[in-house]
């Protein structure tokens, strides 16, 4: 039964698991001590073909460099990303990353294979193709001692036991072990919408080497970014209930609102490609290592904390988490001593807050605005676009938050409520289009007699902004 014993077991060799395996091999050990013995169990080592994790923000690239994994974006036809272009009603606004920082976009599978190659070469790390089916718990204390898994290469049906002082579960957004590990402290992921993905061939985006976000009426945003010399990813946000014919929905309702240069490539892609779909989930982080969570195990990556993928922050958070855990683990003397690990988990939880909270809150708040589905959110969406048009700190601030260059929920709070106030100002002062008595569109500025109505609407807009932002902030500051 006691077949194999390691220092650390990692379930899943995706973004977080592979990076952690490599990072553990770089931890300096006391003189005379062996390198950590790490086992990574991954259900399929074949190149994944998924529509996730294709744009790494500059902050994520910096974390990748800190982990000594920067080579993983070399030789995979990755594209440097210089910022964003947001389009509303056919009008673009240019949002470059500050200080000439860049991110990278790529085919997810190629990047994962590069990360896995690094993990396989790492000292003390063994990567095994096996599906983990259960956690092994001590019948007396309930502590997790390891996992049971079925190997792929042997073809054996039998489950094999793997034991370790510490088990790290990094099995992604559909984690099978989240509930078992978190116990009563666990929360359920909330699915905000779905992304439907296709790859377009040889298209020119409005601004080269910039992610494009098109704000469309009656639907969530459409994202486009180049993932290879000839390939551009299109992700279409679709809210529940999903249309029965997704292709028809995209062609009839969304394509007419996208830049005309994209119409034919999208049509071709929809004819030739299978549409893929992924849920866009939000799962706030709950502190691990407390009374309710299991001993001997921890969750990492999407298994523990998820944000809306609109802002492409998932991999950045995962790499940043690995950087922090690696540094904290250097101080742990005995991994089997849960008190030590538990204190590490406490420090990790709060040390990651600056970046992770900023990215988590921003992703959902921005999604609520960009996917506006009522009148008040629509005012905020237009106001947000106009805020970007002001330029200067009104674009540098938000894009630095989104890209992980600035990690500060306080700065995020400032920009979010600045957008809300500017939206109200714009509603009073800026011309907008109305339909006149003859059914023709005319441009008008609000008149004094409309002011009482607009004052009431302003209060409602501020309230809406609070309802969007403050509960998200709460999910990050609550400490139990
Ligand atoms: C539609 C969409 C688009 C996204 N786009 C971006 C983006 O552009 N940029 C970005 O930074 N983030 C993006 N994200 C988020 C990003 O993909 C995740 O945050 C990231 O992949 C999380 O890494 P992970 O290691 O936790 O999970 P994963 O990378 O999913 O890895 C989990 C691994 O565990 C393995 N596994 C699962 N179960 C088992 C088991 N029982 N036994 C053994 N192995 C198992 C899986 O095979 C997989 O290899 C996107 C998410 C979505 C939904």
UniProtKB/TrEMBL annotation:
Domain of life (superkingdom): Eukaryota
Free-text function comment from the UniProt entry: Catalyzes the stereospecific oxidation of squalene to (S)-2,3-epoxysqualene, and is considered to be a rate-limiting enzyme in steroid biosynthesis.
Entries under SUPFAM superfamilies matching the protein: FAD/NAD(P)-binding domain (SSF51905)
Catalytic activity: squalene + reduced [NADPH--hemoprotein reductase] + O2 = (S)-2,3-epoxysqualene + oxidized [NADPH--hemoprotein reductase] + H2O + H(+)
Domain Squalene epoxidase as annotated: residue spans: 163-429
Keyword Endoplasmic reticulum: yes
Cofactor(s) this protein cannot do without: FAD
Name of the protein: Squalene monooxygenase
Membrane-protein topology: Multi-pass membrane protein
Cellular component, GO annotation: endoplasmic reticulum membrane
Compartments (UniProt record): Endoplasmic reticulum membrane; Microsome membrane
Gene Ontology MF, one: squalene monooxygenase activity
Keyword terms: Endoplasmic reticulum, FAD, Flavoprotein, Membrane, Microsome, Oxidoreductase, Transmembrane, Transmembrane helix
Transmembrane feature ranges: 412-430, 451-474
Family: Belongs to the squalene monooxygenase family.
Coiled coil start-end: none
């Amino acid at each position: 039964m006691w077949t194999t014993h390691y220092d650390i077991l990692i379930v899943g060799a995706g973004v977080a698991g592979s990076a952690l395996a490599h990072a553990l091999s770089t931890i300096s050990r006391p003189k005379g001590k062996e390198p950590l013995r790490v086992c990574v169990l991954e259900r399929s080592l074949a190149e994944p073909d998924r529509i996730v994790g294709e744009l790494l923000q500059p902050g994520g690239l910096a974390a990748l460099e800190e982990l000594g994994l920067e080579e993983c974006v070399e030789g995979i036809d990755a594209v440097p990303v210089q910022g964003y272009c947001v389009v509303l009603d056919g009008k673009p606004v240019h949002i470059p990353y500050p200080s000439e920082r860049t991110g990278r976009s790529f085919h997810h599978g190629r990047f994962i294979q590069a990360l896995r190659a690094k993990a396989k070469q790492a000292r003390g790390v063994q990567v095994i193709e096996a599906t983990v089916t259960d956690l092994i718990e001590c019948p007396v204390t309930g502590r997790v001692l390891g996992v049971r898994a079925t190997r792929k290469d042997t073809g054996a049906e039998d489950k094999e036991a793997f034991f370790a002082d510490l088990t790290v579960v990094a099995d992604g957004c559909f984690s099978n072990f989240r509930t078992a590990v978190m116990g009563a402290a666990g929360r359920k992921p909330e699915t905000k919408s779905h992304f439907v993905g296709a790859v377009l061939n040889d298209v020119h985006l409005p601004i080269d080497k910039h992610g494009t976000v098109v704000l469309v009426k009656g639907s969530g945003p459409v994202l486009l970014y180049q993932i290879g010399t000839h390939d551009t990813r299109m992700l279409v946000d679709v809210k529940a209930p999903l249309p029965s014919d997704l292709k028809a929905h995209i062609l009839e309702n969304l394509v007419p609102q996208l830049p005309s240069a994209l119409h034919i490539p999208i049509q071709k892609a929809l004819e030739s490609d299978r549409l893929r779909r992924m849920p866009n989930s939000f799962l706030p982080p709950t502190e691990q290592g407390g009374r309710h969570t299991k001993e001997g195990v921890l969750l990492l990556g999407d298994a523990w904390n998820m944000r809306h993928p609109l802002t492409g922050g998932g991999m950045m958070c995962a790499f940043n988490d690995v950087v922090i855990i690696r540094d904290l683990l250097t101080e742990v003397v005995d991994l089997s001593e849960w008190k030590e690990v538990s204190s590490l988990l406490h420090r990790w939880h709060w040390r990651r807050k600056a970046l992770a909270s900023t990215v988590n809150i921003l992703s959902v708040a921005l999604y609520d605005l960009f996917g506006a589905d009522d009148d008040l959110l629509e005012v905020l969406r237009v106001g947000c676009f106009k805020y970007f048009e002001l330029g200067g700190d009104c674009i540098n601030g938000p894009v630095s938050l989104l890209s992980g260059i600035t990690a500060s929920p306080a700065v995020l709070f400032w920009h979010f409520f600045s957008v809300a106030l500017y939206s109200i100002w714009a509603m009073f002062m800026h011309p907008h289009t109305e339909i006149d008595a003859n059914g023709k569109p005319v441009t008008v500025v609000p008149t004094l007699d409309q002011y009482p109505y607009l004052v009431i609407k302003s209060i409602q807009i501020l309230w809406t902004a609070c309802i969007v932002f403050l509960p998200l902030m709460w999910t990050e500051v609550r400490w139990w």
